[in-house]
Amino acid sequence: MLIRLIAGNALRHKLRTVLTVLGLTVAILSFGLLHTVIDAWYAGANAAAPTTLITRNAISLVFPLPLSYEGRIRATPGVTGVGYANWFGGVYRDPKNFFAQFAISGRSYLDIYPDYLVLERDREAFLHDRQGALVGRKLANQFGFKVGDVIPLRGVIYPGEWHFTVRAIYDGRHSNTNTSTMFMHWDYVNETMKRTVPRRGNQVGVYVATIARAEDAPAIARAIDAQFRNSLAETLTETEKAFQLGFVSMSEAIVAAIRVVSLVVILIMMAVMANTMAMSARERIAEYATLKALGFGPAFLAQLIAGESLLLALAGGALGSALLYPAAHGFAERMGTMFPVFDVAPATVVLQLAAALAIGAVAALAPALRAARIRIVDGLRSIG
């Protein structure tokens, strides 16, 4: 009987119910989308392997390191593999077509990242073509790149007109694997630089080293940096996760603002929902008094109001959670490679439903207490 009464009360004013559920849907959807944006910001750090170290110039990432450091890093006890990479930063046709490009050390670099899945024949084709390019699936889909296509890039960091032939397209082993990047050969870029700008030859942006055990990372990082202390290019070695979090920290204010906005959305909807339930409860004061006169206790009346509020909140929460997946997909398509990974985490959906329940519970609190405390005489007197 209680469930039938709750459902009947919820549908008594259909327009009000529809508008309330729609408002809740928009609020919960916005809340989930904002949290997905935050997750996307941290995707690179969360996907980082604990057994991967990044070595860069201690002053700034802008300053390169000598190629001669590779052998000394490789010889450091505990290091099992070393690769290196340079940010290329070319422009594809138009500056708005931004995507990540790295000149890498070829096989040694790819061996460090087994989550990049590529057919063996295509991998070998890339490794044997000095002007070859390895392109991520998401990037290929966005710009229509296919194996054999030539990608023209206008150099910004490395001046000149560059042309790379797509020899392979890689997929991600996991949903949070970045497939929005283009890789080319560092050897080819380096040879061109030595010929055109000799002073920029044999320079590396970062070294990427693998280690056997994650717990040895701090000691190995200190050992690597100790080798280059007091040199012209001192190093800073840290875990890949710490390296990625360094980029996130540059936009920490934006992330904090997004968190605040997501909370404000929920608080506003909570106030709207509380007002809706207060109006509904005021209209039914006489009914609650009649139920009390018939022997129903205050707890029953509180359950009626709380049940209606939670039903509306859950309806809006469920609809908002269901719409998050297509909304996130559309947002990711719209943003292109700005967010290489933009997946809805199960924890985000749980947060959405928890927020909906919180809205429903808080909105019902004041009307339920008022209905439970009302005197029968006062309630019946409100008729007319």
Automatic annotation (TrEMBL):
MacB-like periplasmic core domain residues: 17-225
**Subcellular location, principal:** membrane
Topology in membrane: Multi-pass membrane protein
One GO CC term on file: plasma membrane
InterPro entries referenced in this protein's UniProt entry, alphabetically: ABC-4/HrtB_transporter, ABC3_permease_C, MacB_PCD
Q: Which residues cross the membrane?
A: 21-43, 253-278, 299-324, 344-366
Q: Matching Pfam families, A to Z?
A: FtsX, MacB_PCD
Q: Where is the ABC3 transporter permease C-terminal domain?
A: 260-374
Print the keywords alphabetically.
Cell membrane, Membrane, Transmembrane, Transmembrane helix
What is the annotated signal peptide range for this record?
Answer: none
The compartments listed are:
Cell membrane
The protein here is known as FtsX-like permease family protein
